[in-house]
Amino acid sequence: MSSINVALLGFGTVGRGVYEIIEQEQKRLTEILGCSVNIVAILVDDETIERNVPSHILVTSSAHDVLTQPVDVVIEAIVGVEPAYTYLSQAIEKGCHIITANKEMFAHKGHELKQQAKERQVSVEYEATVAGGVPVINTLRQLVTVNRVVQIEAILNGTTNYILSEITNKQASFAEALQSAQQLGYAEADPTNDLKGYDALYKAIILAELLTGTKVYGNHVFREGIKSVIKADVIHQQLKGSRVKHIATLNFGQGQIDIRVEPKWITSEHPLYHVEGVDNAIVMTGDYVGRLKLEGPGAGQYPTASVMVEDLVKIFSRERKLVNN
């Protein structure tokens, strides 16, 4: 392969981060992969906005025009189930590998995309859908080659963790903590998906499907957001040595899986007790390895974009190894 041609779907915060990392790390990528990595097309909402992208890169609002380019891998960083699912399905049919950061879409349609990709013999990578820059997907993939995961407990949403940290550590009101999160860019103008637990739910489903290989439906998962958390309760429980965290719990056993996403009161002995601010953390328990913990930035332009580029390297390093063998 003389070069790897990349199409970006979406050029917001994460999409631009992927573009910048690929451009800045060309030398390293070429050394690792034995060829250059070229962005050939970018899908945007509005083509008239100036984006300071070289003229040889197609910038268009037409997904059809993007997918008719000579593309080896499609990297998707847009929002919502559709049209993202349709675009990625079309990319797979054209024989492209796909990489996504779209947790809502992947929670709803990831199982279908993985099945389709298997039939077309292309790769689907989705590290960035769960916990941003924390490599939980690849860690679990490696872990389950021998171990059986019996439980996962995780803080999967940085916005809610920040809000609960502010209430706990600064005795802020819920409204004050939310306003602070929005001012710092941690929460959207409409934070419904975070506050009601949908964001964490999507990520829990993705982890469950990874470990079971079966379709998981959101209406089979218990979900509660953080709006029921009362400042007075936080202060009272803190005096008793407890903190509240919004935790996704996945219990695996005897062919069954139980998933709950909810606020939980935990004591200092719990491994998620000291996870503060916008960090995410995942505690996984394997039957042989015991308990492992991963913690780090759950969002952000470069943490998320970097794991998408890592996914790209993984795909084509694997292909290069197969060719050389």
Automatic annotation (TrEMBL):
Entry EC number(s): 1.1.1.3
Keywords attached to this entry: Amino-acid biosynthesis, Methionine biosynthesis, NADP, Oxidoreductase, Threonine biosynthesis
Domain Homoserine dehydrogenase catalytic per the UniProt entry, residue ranges: 135-313
Domain of life per record: Bacteria
Pathway(s) it belongs to: Amino-acid biosynthesis; L-methionine biosynthesis via de novo pathway; L-homoserine from L-aspartate: step 3/3; Amino-acid biosynthesis; L-threonine biosynthesis; L-threonine from L-aspartate: step 3/5
Catalytic activity: L-homoserine + NADP(+) = L-aspartate 4-semialdehyde + NADPH + H(+)
Family as reported in the entry's similarity comment: Belongs to the homoserine dehydrogenase family.
Annotated NCBIfam families: PRK06349.1
Name of the protein in its database record: Homoserine dehydrogenase
